[in-house]
Amino acid sequence: MLTQVRLPRSSGILLHPTSLPGPNGIGDLGGQAYRFVDFLVAAGQTLWQVLPLGPPGPGDSPYAGSSAFAGSPLLVSLAVLRQGDDTPGATRVDYGRVGREKAERLRKAHRELRGERREAIERFAAKNAAWLDDFALFTAIKEAQGGAAWTEWPEPLARHDPDALAVFRKEQLEAYDFHVFVQQAFHEQWHALKKYANERGVRIMGDVPIFVAHDSADVWAHPDLFRLDERGQPTEIAGVPPDYFSFFRAGSPGLSTLAVIVPPFTTTCETPLTGRCGRMSASVPVPSSVIVDVPALKF
Protein backbone atom coordinates (compact mmCIF):
# COMPACT_ATOMS: atom_id res chain seq x y z
CA MET A 1 0.00 0.00 0.00
CA LEU A 2 1.42 3.33 -1.03
CA THR A 3 1.52 6.11 1.54
CA GLN A 4 0.55 9.60 0.45
CA VAL A 5 3.28 12.04 1.36
CA ARG A 6 2.86 15.79 1.71
CA LEU A 7 6.05 17.80 1.61
CA PRO A 8 6.54 21.54 1.93
CA ARG A 9 7.37 23.33 -1.29
CA SER A 10 11.13 23.12 -1.58
CA SER A 11 14.00 23.58 -3.98
CA GLY A 12 17.49 22.22 -4.17
CA ILE A 13 20.22 20.85 -6.38
CA LEU A 14 20.91 17.43 -7.87
CA LEU A 15 24.60 16.69 -7.65
CA HIS A 16 26.43 13.40 -7.21
CA PRO A 17 29.29 13.80 -4.70
CA THR A 18 31.81 12.62 -7.32
CA SER A 19 31.10 15.89 -9.17
CA LEU A 20 32.41 17.99 -6.29
CA PRO A 21 35.93 19.43 -6.48
CA GLY A 22 38.13 16.59 -5.29
CA PRO A 23 41.65 16.31 -3.91
CA ASN A 24 42.31 12.92 -5.50
CA GLY A 25 40.84 13.27 -8.96
CA ILE A 26 37.23 12.85 -7.81
CA GLY A 27 34.75 14.40 -5.38
CA ASP A 28 34.28 12.62 -2.05
CA LEU A 29 32.67 12.92 1.38
CA GLY A 30 35.33 15.22 2.76
CA GLY A 31 35.61 18.97 3.21
CA GLN A 32 34.28 19.96 -0.21
CA ALA A 33 31.01 18.14 0.50
CA TYR A 34 30.56 20.13 3.70
CA ARG A 35 31.31 23.35 1.81
CA PHE A 36 28.63 22.40 -0.69
CA VAL A 37 26.13 22.04 2.16
CA ASP A 38 27.13 25.50 3.38
CA PHE A 39 26.58 26.80 -0.15
CA LEU A 40 23.07 25.30 -0.24
CA VAL A 41 22.26 26.96 3.08
CA ALA A 42 23.57 30.33 1.91
CA ALA A 43 21.55 30.01 -1.30
CA GLY A 44 18.34 29.25 0.58
CA GLN A 45 18.15 25.68 -0.74
CA THR A 46 16.81 22.84 1.38
CA LEU A 47 17.30 19.73 -0.77
CA TRP A 48 20.36 17.87 -1.97
CA GLN A 49 19.63 14.97 -4.29
CA VAL A 50 22.71 12.77 -4.26
CA LEU A 51 21.66 9.86 -6.52
CA PRO A 52 22.97 6.34 -5.72
CA LEU A 53 26.19 6.22 -3.74
CA GLY A 54 27.14 2.58 -4.24
CA PRO A 55 30.14 0.97 -5.93
CA PRO A 56 29.89 1.90 -9.63
CA GLY A 57 29.28 -0.86 -12.15
CA PRO A 58 29.83 -1.14 -15.91
CA GLY A 59 30.57 2.20 -17.51
CA ASP A 60 31.30 3.64 -14.04
CA SER A 61 27.56 3.88 -13.47
CA PRO A 62 26.24 4.15 -9.90
CA TYR A 63 22.99 2.63 -11.20
CA ALA A 64 24.51 -0.80 -11.86
CA GLY A 65 26.49 -1.29 -8.67
CA SER A 66 27.68 -4.49 -7.07
CA SER A 67 25.57 -4.06 -3.94
CA ALA A 68 22.29 -2.49 -2.86
CA PHE A 69 23.82 -1.67 0.52
CA ALA A 70 27.53 -0.89 0.13
CA GLY A 71 29.03 2.52 -0.49
CA SER A 72 31.51 3.47 -3.19
CA PRO A 73 35.16 3.36 -2.11
CA LEU A 74 35.73 6.28 -4.48
CA LEU A 75 33.68 8.47 -2.16
CA VAL A 76 35.72 7.73 0.96
CA SER A 77 37.63 10.85 1.96
CA LEU A 78 41.34 10.18 2.44
CA ALA A 79 41.63 13.52 4.23
CA VAL A 80 39.15 12.37 6.88
CA LEU A 81 41.27 9.23 7.27
CA ARG A 82 44.35 11.46 7.69
CA GLN A 83 45.80 10.19 4.41
CA GLY A 84 45.82 13.45 2.48
CA ASP A 85 44.31 16.93 2.27
CA ASP A 86 41.22 18.48 0.68
CA THR A 87 42.94 20.63 -1.93
CA PRO A 88 40.93 20.29 -5.18
CA GLY A 89 42.73 18.79 -8.15
CA ALA A 90 41.50 17.59 -11.54
CA THR A 91 38.29 18.98 -13.05
CA ARG A 92 37.46 15.77 -14.95
CA VAL A 93 37.30 12.27 -13.51
CA ASP A 94 39.46 9.52 -15.00
CA TYR A 95 37.72 6.62 -13.29
CA GLY A 96 40.31 4.03 -14.25
CA ARG A 97 43.22 6.02 -12.87
CA VAL A 98 41.33 7.28 -9.84
CA GLY A 99 40.12 3.80 -8.97
CA ARG A 100 43.63 2.34 -9.05
CA GLU A 101 45.27 5.18 -7.15
CA LYS A 102 42.58 5.46 -4.51
CA ALA A 103 42.56 1.70 -3.92
CA GLU A 104 46.30 1.83 -3.23
CA ARG A 105 45.91 4.68 -0.76
CA LEU A 106 42.94 3.05 0.94
CA ARG A 107 44.97 -0.14 1.37
CA LYS A 108 47.71 1.95 2.98
CA ALA A 109 45.09 3.50 5.30
CA HIS A 110 43.83 0.00 6.12
CA ARG A 111 47.31 -1.15 7.13
CA GLU A 112 47.95 1.94 9.25
CA LEU A 113 44.54 2.49 10.85
CA ARG A 114 42.87 -0.91 11.29
CA GLY A 115 44.31 -1.30 14.78
CA GLU A 116 42.96 1.96 16.18
CA ARG A 117 39.63 1.54 14.36
CA ARG A 118 39.14 -2.11 15.30
CA GLU A 119 36.30 -1.57 17.79
CA ALA A 120 34.38 0.69 15.40
CA ILE A 121 34.86 -1.81 12.58
CA GLU A 122 33.67 -4.71 14.73
CA ARG A 123 30.55 -2.79 15.79
CA PHE A 124 29.83 -1.90 12.19
CA ALA A 125 30.33 -5.48 11.02
CA ALA A 126 28.00 -6.83 13.69
CA LYS A 127 25.30 -4.27 12.87
CA ASN A 128 25.50 -4.91 9.12
CA ALA A 129 26.16 -8.64 9.10
CA ALA A 130 23.09 -9.27 6.92
CA TRP A 131 24.89 -7.88 3.85
CA LEU A 132 28.48 -6.98 4.72
CA ASP A 133 29.97 -10.48 4.83
CA ASP A 134 28.57 -11.38 1.41
CA PHE A 135 29.69 -8.07 -0.07
CA ALA A 136 33.25 -8.34 1.26
CA LEU A 137 33.50 -11.92 -0.02
CA PHE A 138 31.95 -11.04 -3.38
CA THR A 139 34.33 -8.14 -3.94
CA ALA A 140 37.42 -10.03 -2.83
CA ILE A 141 36.55 -13.04 -5.02
CA LYS A 142 35.82 -10.79 -7.99
CA GLU A 143 39.24 -9.18 -7.62
CA ALA A 144 40.91 -12.59 -7.36
CA GLN A 145 39.05 -13.68 -10.51
CA GLY A 146 40.25 -10.69 -12.52
CA GLY A 147 36.90 -8.89 -12.41
CA ALA A 148 34.93 -11.76 -13.94
CA ALA A 149 31.18 -11.96 -13.35
CA TRP A 150 30.20 -14.36 -10.57
CA THR A 151 28.67 -16.75 -13.10
CA GLU A 152 32.20 -17.29 -14.49
CA TRP A 153 33.85 -18.13 -11.16
CA PRO A 154 34.85 -21.66 -10.14
CA GLU A 155 31.63 -23.53 -9.46
CA PRO A 156 31.90 -23.85 -5.63
CA LEU A 157 32.43 -20.09 -5.30
CA ALA A 158 29.76 -19.25 -7.87
CA ARG A 159 27.29 -21.44 -5.98
CA HIS A 160 28.08 -19.63 -2.71
CA ASP A 161 29.22 -22.93 -1.17
CA PRO A 162 29.88 -22.29 2.56
CA ASP A 163 32.92 -24.59 2.71
CA ALA A 164 34.53 -23.00 -0.35
CA LEU A 165 33.83 -19.52 1.02
CA ALA A 166 35.36 -20.42 4.38
CA VAL A 167 38.55 -21.58 2.65
CA PHE A 168 38.66 -18.45 0.50
CA ARG A 169 38.11 -16.15 3.48
CA LYS A 170 40.95 -17.82 5.36
CA GLU A 171 43.32 -17.60 2.40
CA GLN A 172 42.34 -14.03 1.47
CA LEU A 173 41.65 -12.59 4.93
CA GLU A 174 43.63 -9.42 4.21
CA ALA A 175 41.49 -8.62 1.15
CA TYR A 176 38.27 -9.49 3.00
CA ASP A 177 39.16 -7.28 5.98
CA PHE A 178 40.11 -4.44 3.64
CA HIS A 179 36.65 -4.29 2.09
CA VAL A 180 35.02 -4.33 5.53
CA PHE A 181 37.33 -1.48 6.58
CA VAL A 182 36.40 0.61 3.54
CA GLN A 183 32.68 0.11 4.10
CA GLN A 184 32.95 1.16 7.73
CA ALA A 185 34.83 4.29 6.69
CA PHE A 186 32.29 5.12 3.98
CA HIS A 187 29.25 4.72 6.23
CA GLU A 188 30.85 6.68 9.07
CA GLN A 189 31.70 9.55 6.74
CA TRP A 190 28.34 9.49 4.98
CA HIS A 191 26.29 9.61 8.19
CA ALA A 192 28.46 12.41 9.56
CA LEU A 193 27.87 14.45 6.38
CA LYS A 194 24.14 13.74 6.42
CA LYS A 195 23.92 14.79 10.08
CA TYR A 196 25.72 18.04 9.25
CA ALA A 197 23.31 18.76 6.41
CA ASN A 198 20.17 17.90 8.38
CA GLU A 199 21.21 20.08 11.30
CA ARG A 200 21.37 23.02 8.87
CA GLY A 201 17.98 22.37 7.32
CA VAL A 202 19.20 20.56 4.21
CA ARG A 203 17.40 17.31 3.47
CA ILE A 204 19.07 14.52 1.53
CA MET A 205 17.27 12.79 -1.31
CA GLY A 206 18.43 9.57 -2.92
CA ASP A 207 16.77 7.88 -5.86
CA VAL A 208 13.81 5.53 -6.25
CA PRO A 209 14.86 1.87 -5.76
CA ILE A 210 14.05 -0.25 -8.78
CA PHE A 211 16.35 -3.23 -9.32
CA VAL A 212 19.72 -4.59 -8.26
CA ALA A 213 22.36 -5.59 -10.77
CA HIS A 214 22.68 -9.21 -11.86
CA ASP A 215 26.45 -9.17 -11.27
CA SER A 216 26.06 -8.14 -7.66
CA ALA A 217 26.61 -9.55 -4.20
CA ASP A 218 22.85 -9.52 -3.68
CA VAL A 219 21.97 -11.83 -6.58
CA TRP A 220 25.05 -14.01 -6.03
CA ALA A 221 24.20 -14.56 -2.36
CA HIS A 222 20.45 -15.05 -2.91
CA PRO A 223 19.97 -16.75 -6.29
CA ASP A 224 16.88 -18.52 -5.01
CA LEU A 225 15.03 -15.20 -5.04
CA PHE A 226 15.58 -14.68 -8.75
CA ARG A 227 14.59 -16.37 -11.99
CA LEU A 228 17.95 -17.79 -13.03
CA ASP A 229 18.85 -20.83 -15.10
CA GLU A 230 21.29 -23.54 -14.01
CA ARG A 231 24.22 -21.35 -15.09
CA GLY A 232 23.00 -18.40 -13.00
CA GLN A 233 21.89 -16.41 -16.03
CA PRO A 234 18.50 -14.61 -15.95
CA THR A 235 15.63 -16.42 -17.68
CA GLU A 236 13.60 -13.20 -17.83
CA ILE A 237 14.73 -9.63 -18.28
CA ALA A 238 13.30 -6.16 -18.01
CA GLY A 239 14.22 -2.71 -19.19
CA VAL A 240 12.83 0.38 -20.86
CA PRO A 241 12.13 1.28 -24.49
CA PRO A 242 15.04 2.92 -26.31
CA ASP A 243 15.22 6.67 -25.97
CA TYR A 244 17.55 9.52 -26.85
CA PHE A 245 20.11 8.29 -24.37
CA SER A 246 20.05 4.53 -24.90
CA PHE A 247 19.42 1.93 -27.52
CA PHE A 248 19.91 -1.20 -25.49
CA ARG A 249 18.04 -3.21 -22.91
CA ALA A 250 18.56 -3.75 -19.22
CA GLY A 251 18.48 -7.44 -18.34
CA SER A 252 16.92 -8.72 -15.17
CA PRO A 253 16.56 -12.14 -13.56
CA GLY A 254 13.04 -12.03 -12.19
CA LEU A 255 12.32 -12.78 -8.58
CA SER A 256 10.78 -16.15 -7.83
CA THR A 257 7.13 -16.44 -6.80
CA LEU A 258 7.99 -15.33 -3.28
CA ALA A 259 6.50 -12.10 -2.02
CA VAL A 260 9.46 -9.85 -1.35
CA ILE A 261 9.65 -6.49 0.35
CA VAL A 262 11.49 -4.15 -2.00
CA PRO A 263 13.88 -1.82 -0.11
CA PRO A 264 11.82 1.37 0.39
CA PHE A 265 12.74 4.74 -1.01
CA THR A 266 15.00 6.09 1.66
CA THR A 267 16.28 9.57 2.27
CA THR A 268 18.50 8.36 5.08
CA CYS A 269 20.67 6.35 2.67
CA GLU A 270 20.85 3.38 5.03
CA THR A 271 21.16 1.51 1.73
CA PRO A 272 23.11 4.00 -0.38
CA LEU A 273 22.65 2.11 -3.63
CA THR A 274 18.97 1.22 -3.78
CA GLY A 275 18.42 2.71 -7.20
CA ARG A 276 18.69 1.09 -10.58
CA CYS A 277 18.05 2.84 -13.86
CA GLY A 278 16.56 0.83 -16.70
CA ARG A 279 18.76 2.70 -19.18
CA MET A 280 21.94 1.07 -17.91
CA SER A 281 23.31 -1.89 -19.83
CA ALA A 282 24.07 -4.24 -16.94
CA SER A 283 21.68 -7.07 -16.09
CA VAL A 284 19.40 -6.44 -13.14
CA PRO A 285 16.81 -8.53 -11.32
CA VAL A 286 13.15 -7.75 -11.77
CA PRO A 287 10.34 -8.97 -9.52
CA SER A 288 7.44 -11.15 -10.62
CA SER A 289 5.46 -11.16 -7.40
CA VAL A 290 6.39 -8.26 -5.19
CA ILE A 291 4.96 -6.32 -2.29
CA VAL A 292 6.24 -2.76 -2.43
CA ASP A 293 6.44 -1.10 0.95
CA VAL A 294 6.84 2.66 0.64
CA PRO A 295 6.61 4.33 4.06
CA ALA A 296 6.28 8.04 4.65
CA LEU A 297 9.48 9.81 3.75
CA LYS A 298 11.55 10.91 6.73
CA PHE A 299 14.31 13.43 6.27
Distance between the termini: 21 Å
- Please state the structural category: mainly alpha
CATH topology: TIM Barrel
Biggest sheet statistics: 3 strands, parallel
What pattern of helices and strands is seen along the backbone? EHEHHHHHHEHEE
CATH architecture tag: Alpha-Beta Barrel
Task: Estimate percent helicity.
Answer: 25-40%
Mean pLDDT: 80
CATH class: Alpha Beta
Number of strands: 5
Number of continuous helical runs: 8
Shape: globular
% residues in beta strands? 5-15%
- The CATH homologous superfamily is called Glycosidases
Multimer state: single chain
Give the structure's gist in a few sentences.
The protein is 34% helix and 5% strand. The protein has eight helices and five strands; from the N terminus they run βαβααααααβαββ.
Q: What would your notes on this structure say?
A:
By secondary structure, this protein is mainly alpha-helical. It has a single domain (12-292), classed as Alpha-Beta Barrel (TIM Barrel). The protein contains eight helices and five strands. A three-stranded parallel β-sheet has the order 1-2-3, with helices on one face. Strands 4-5 form a two-stranded parallel ribbon. Helix 3 (118-127) packs across helix 4 (129-144), helix 3 (118-127) crosses helix 7 (173-199) and helix 4 (129-144) crosses helix 7. It is globular and about 55 Å long. Mean pLDDT is 80; it is low at 257-299.
